[in-house]
Amino acid sequence: MKELLKELCLVNGVSGDETAVRENIIGKIKDYCEYTVDNLGNLICFCKGRKKSDKKVMICAHMDEVGFIVTYINDDGTLCFGEVGGVDTSVIIGRQVKVGSISGVVGSTAVHNLSKEEREVPPKTDSLYIDIGADSREDAEKYVSLGDCVYFNSDFIEIGDCIKSKAIDDRAGCAMMIKMIQEKPEYDTYFVFNVQEEIGLRGSRVSAFAVQPDFAIVLEATTAGDIDGVSGAKKVCQLGKGAVVGFMDRSTVYDKELYKLAFDTAKEINVPCQTKTMIAGGNDSGAIHLSGRGVRTIAVSVPCRYLHSPSCVINWADFENTSVLVKELAKKVHEL
Prior knowledge:
Order of helices and strands: HHEEEEEEEHEHEEEHEHEEHEHEEH
Structural class: alpha+beta
Mean pLDDT: 95
Number of domains: 2
Number of strands: 17
CATH topology of the largest domain: Aminopeptidase
CATH class of the largest domain: Alpha Beta
């Protein structure tokens, strides 16, 4: 599983440009299920299980990652850019990036050229630029075009019991689903790899309408604030304490029976599980649970520090335990 997650994380695929991720996933699941790609780019898979069910259950994760897009090329050959998804400016400055096959660095105005007031205010993205080593607009245009996608250039490494990489949100969920498809689920199940989650839950609106499930289990990575100086509910969730199951976020009030079922299942199979302690963030559940006649929905997430950065960090045991829980929870949902 670790090699699978590594391979997925190192593929580039910001929102609207998920083709390489999708093709990688298709190569891994094509011999185990039926699949289609819809007009928006969602990968919708139907996997026959060992048993049939009178319920239509959909498990999903999103393929896209946060990143940037080139908006203008300056006379000196540097690139202006905008965010694709929610990226805090503080994690951008000085970072290595890729624009296609070209490497670059995100630059900002030198500190000695800033006023005292400017130094005290976080810079805005429109004051930053990408330096690809070009010396003019004409030189840069040999390699870069407006609308090109920009990705964090980040290695996948192990640090203690943890993994550090870009795009763990949500290649972690994608990896879990690939494993479930390859191992064959207990019951007939739809698995959906969605596009464009990071820019407004767009892919899931389309795929949920197409599948029309009765139940949905959304796999995600969610923010862990368990660092020094943070206490109580503001930690949100913690690494090392297992899968995260929320009761509510900014886009969804989760099904109460499924919420309880997740914790009961975790206790039954003896894996750790924790509650998300803040009403914050959101995921594809926000679009899915409102689709059609309504979909009973729960989200199960891996706790992740430094989300939406080039250095997302998860605990490997959390990833494995979340995978085990989701597999068992899917079976329990079919049997409700």
